[in-house]
Specification:
Shape of chain A: globular
Largest sheet of chain A: 7 strands, mixed
Number of helices of chain A: 0
Largest sheet of chain B: 6 strands, mixed
Radius of gyration of chain B: 13 Å
Mean pLDDT of chain A: 92
Low-confidence stretches of chain A: none
Order of helices and strands of chain A: EEEEEEEEEEE
Radius of gyration of chain A: 13 Å
Low-confidence stretches of chain B: none
Distance between the termini of chain B: 36 Å
Distance between the termini of chain A: 38 Å
Helix content of chain B: under 10%
Oligomer: heterodimer
Order of helices and strands of chain B: EEEEEEEEEEE
Largest interface: A-B, 29 and 27 residues
Helix content of chain A: under 10%
Number of strands of chain B: 11
Strand content of chain A: over 45%
Chain lengths: 114, 112
């Protein structure tokens, strides 16, 4: 069974640039969610995708957008990067319909905005 | 916004001792979960307790939930140096199982 994988693991961007982060969900999982974790803080929910549609969103501006593909992999796009976007971005997957709320997380993509 | 508030923020104990971590939350929940994170890496799920449960065990872990006080505790018995990590409680509202609201976390250091 393949776990959740994310890429890239680290990247550096400058203010105003755009970034795309990628996530492959765990085999058999159909729901993907993204979280932002600033240094010293707990993860904060960005949004969730199920059946290729966004079906839940946290308190993040529209410049944070995403996609889910037919194979359930996902992308997180952030436009017009700001310094405060520097964080660890975590992808998590689960199977909607399973009688469990457990999320399976990837190792994250650490974004630094200069 | 972060719903869960863990207590203490940092905990340092000797190997073999028990570690108790507390979490309080504000709104009604479907379930409460505890996760562990090593040095800014991915989170690993430890245990989940549903709102209609009061206590649950998994190996060296024991979690309790008091919905009247909106609080939970995680007990790690016979701690090991390898338990050194950050621990987060996270709550899930009804019908929104993928949206977890995390606290700021507790840093546990277990001295060999």
């Amino acid at each position: 069974e393949t776990g959740v994988t994310q890429s890239p693991t680290h990247l550096i961007k400058t203010r105003g640039q755009q970034v795309t982060l990628r996530c492959s969900s765990q085999s058999g999982h159909n729901t993907v969610s993204w979280y932002q974790q600033a240094l010293g803080q707990g993860p904060q929910f960005i949004f969730q995708y199920y059946r290729e549609e966004e079906n839940g969103r946290g308190n993040f501006p529209p410049r944070f957008s995403g996609l889910q593909f037919p194979n359930y992999s996902s992308e997180l796009n952030v436009n017009a990067l700001e310094l405060d976007d520097s964080a660890l971005y975590l992808c998590a997957s689960r199977f909607t319909g399973a009688n469990t709320g457990e999320l399976f997380f990837g190792e994250g993509s650490r974004l630094t905005v200069l | 916004s972060q719903q869960g508030e863990e207590d203490p923020q940092a905990l340092s104990i000797q190997e073999g001792e028990n570690a108790t971590m507390n979490c309080s939350y504000k709104t009604s929940i479907n379930n409460l979960q505890w996760y562990r994170q090593n040095s800014g890496r991915g989170l690993v799920h430890l245990i989940l307790i549903r709102s209609n449960e009061r206590e649950k065990h998994s190996g060296r872990l024991r979690v309790t939930l008091d919905t009247s006080k909106k609080s939970s505790s995680l007990l790690i018995t016979a701690s090991r140096a390898a338990d050194t990590a950050s621990y987060f409680c996270a709550t899930a509202a009804t019908g929104a199982n993928s949206k977890l609201t995390f606290g700021k976390g507790i840093t546990l250091s277990v001295r060999p």
